[in-house]
Design brief:
Blueprint: E1 11-14, E2 19-22, E3 25-27, H1 30-37, H2 41-55, H3 61-69, H4 72-107, H5 118-130, E4 134-138, E5 141-144, E6 149-152, E7 155-158, E8 168-173, H6 182-190, E9 194-196, E10 202-203, E11 210-217, E12 220-227, H7 230-248, H8 250-254
Parallel strand pairs: 8-11
Antiparallel strand pairs: 1-2, 2-3, 4-7, 5-6, 5-9, 7-8, 9-10, 11-12
Helix pairs in contact: 1-7, 2-4, 4-5, 6-7
Length: 272
């Protein structure tokens, strides 16, 4: 007699590859859903600019001459990879800043901060003090079974200076700027059905009164409003669901166009 093993219940997160599984099934992350559903025209212009700036930088002339004197295909591959390398370097820096921010949230202190990250971390620590931020939850995976997504929020907190001291959500960004699509991201986290603790146990999330984005830069940390009320969070959540639907239906769109039509044969026409 064969038995079917039941799929494991709950949410799991794998750091390698940044992948989630919910009740044993793959579930797409919030940022992936938004990335696949919200156009980013600025990136189309950014990538060629990165290459153009590198090519026209006199410090890079020896390497450029070397590339042009060698295999053209190899030169194309290296030049094409410049935006990806820059993006990956920024991603590594952003992850490191997030890691130190989590320590600050949990302990109030930052230790072993690399010199190149010190301005980011010191500025963020000053921001936490000035805004009197008290941590509720930080860097926990969360998910929503009904709308089928998962993610990891940065910070749920309170401040006597924000939202009347009610629970708020703050997302940290170390990018060049901050953008409205972050409101969709924070709304998705705020509307998650549960988060998991270190042991994988599910817990309900606090009701979030407002959402914000903290722009963490070497010059300091600035705070921007995203949603000022639960009603605005709901509006942003509907935008997130629209973006998620666009991403989730990508394969259906790809399948719409098949083979070109042939002119149908009309009975009796050939005989005539």
């Amino acid at each position: 007699m064969s038995t079917t093993k039941a799929a494991p219940k709950g949410l799991t997160f794998t750091h390698n590859g940044h992948r989630y599984k919910l009740d044993g099934l793959p579930v797409t992350g919030v940022t992936t859903l938004i990335g696949g559903g919200v156009p980013k025209p600025a990136l189309v212009l950014w990538a060629p600019r990165v290459v153009a700036e590198w090519v026209t930088d006199s410090d890079n002339r020896p390497r450029l001459d070397e590339l042009l004197a060698g295999d053209p295909e190899a030169a194309i591959r290296e030049l094409k990879s410049l935006p990806t390398k820059l993006r990956d370097e920024a991603g590594v820096r952003g992850t490191a800043v997030h890691d130190h921010a989590e320590v600050l949230h949990n302990t109030g202190e930052a230790v072993d901060v690399p010199e190149e990250l010190t301005p980011y971390v010191e500025g963020y620590a000053e921001f936490l003090d000035k805004w009197q931020i008290t941590t509720l939850l930080t860097e926990r995976p969360c998910a929503n079974r009904k709308d089928w997504y998962a993610g990891k929020f940065d910070l749920f907190a309170t401040s006597p200076l924000l939202a009347g001291g009610k629970p708020i959500q703050i997302d940290l960004k170390t990018s060049k700027g901050v953008y409205g699509e972050t409101a969709l991201q924070t709304a998705a986290y705020a509307k998650a059905e549960f988060y998991i603790d270190e042991d994988g146990n599910e817990h309900p999330l606090p009701e979030i009164a407002a959402t914000f984005v903290a722009h963490v830069t070497p010059a300091g940390t600035a705070l921007y409003e995203l949603a000022r009320t639960p009603e605005e969070i709901e509006q942003h959540y509907q935008m997130f669901l629209a973006a998620a639907y666009t991403h989730k239906t990508a394969k259906l769109r790809d399948a719409i166009i098949t083979e070109p039509l042939s002119i149908p044969a009309i009975e009796g026409l050939e005989a005539a």
